[in-house]
Amino acid sequence: MSHDVRTVIDGMSFTECPRWHEERLWFVDFYIRRVHSVTEDGADLRIEAEVPEQPSGLGWLPDGRMLVVSQLDRRILRREADGSLVTHADLSDLVDAQLNDMVVDPSGRAWVGNFGFDIMAGEPLAPTSLYRVDPDGSVHLAASDLWFPNGSVVTPDGGTLLVDETLGNRVSAFDIADDGGLGRRRTWASFGALPSDLAQEKALAELSVGPDGNALDAEGCLWIADALGGRAIRVREGGEILDEVSPGTGVFACGLGGADGRTLYLCAAPDFLAHNRRPVREAAIMATTVEVPAA
Fold first, then answer.
1. How far apart are CA 182 and CA 202, in angstroms?
2. Mean pLDDT of 74-81
């Protein structure tokens, strides 16, 4: 299917974690170190928070307070009613690598991943864990043996957590218990085998898809940003690729939103390497219209 892609906002360093919330698109910029929101047409860009240790995943508590990952000091911050940021949860004693993306469910439970190793320094791949942070800020081990857990969504019934494993060639699904614990694990979509060589350059060459950020639509399919393929793909459970959007640059996250839920937002940049992205402003939020709205 052919898609016309437009630019919503440009002049960014590296955009990530797009979330449609309160009739605006919210997103982070890693190296400008801000949380932004913008209107659907890109006309009104706001600074929502400054995160000195680099923002990533976003979500909201039931009372409307925003949660944002602070990557480098491995904390989750909470924005209070007066706009100040306070520590909601500190994972620095549990996680060696920087924190990453996060999903927050309607009850305020957050699941947050981490890199597992220093990807920017070229370290070999290593599996890592996913953590759950409850509304009171308490931290609990949720799952282990994940290969770069990244974009995640909770299904509308609250019963399943889907987690992209960027360096695992797959999306994993977990049953969510009433207390937030994760039960049965299964492969929701597989794009190939796990890398056989953990040396980073060789491992990346073995991957068919690098599932990064994602968004769930009303038919239960995932739009997945393929961080290695310069595209967003629409995937049915089982791994069949149904649609694709290729904007001509790298795509590292995606989100569904807009007034009718049919706008697919793409976080785009030439690559993901910090030393390339930090000094320049070549990243953008792009968008296209899709047929099936957000879940």
1. 32
2. 98
Question: What pLDDT shows up at residue 112?
Answer: 98
134: exposed, middle or buried (Cβ count in 10 Å: 0-12, 13-18, 19+): middle
User: Residue 176: which of 89, 94, 111, 256 has the closest Cα?
Assistant: 111
The backbone region for 239, taken as left when phi is positive above 0, alpha when psi lies in -120 to 50, beta otherwise, is left
CA atoms in the 13 A half-sphere facing the CB of 109? 22
**What CA–CA distance (Å, rounded) separates 280 from 31?**
9
pLDDT tops 80 at residue 1: no
Chain-centre distance for alpha carbon 80: 23
List the domain boundaries for the chain. Answer: 6-289
Residue 211 corresponds to which tokens in the numbers above? Answer: 């599932």
In tens, the pLDDT along 100-147 reads: 999 999 999 999 999 999 999 889 999 999 999 999 999 999 999 999
Residue position matching structure tokens 């759950």: 132
- CATH number 3.40.50.2000 given to 6-289: no
Per-residue DSSP letter, 294 = B
User: Residues with Cβ < 8 Å from 43, sequence gap 6 or more?
Assistant: none
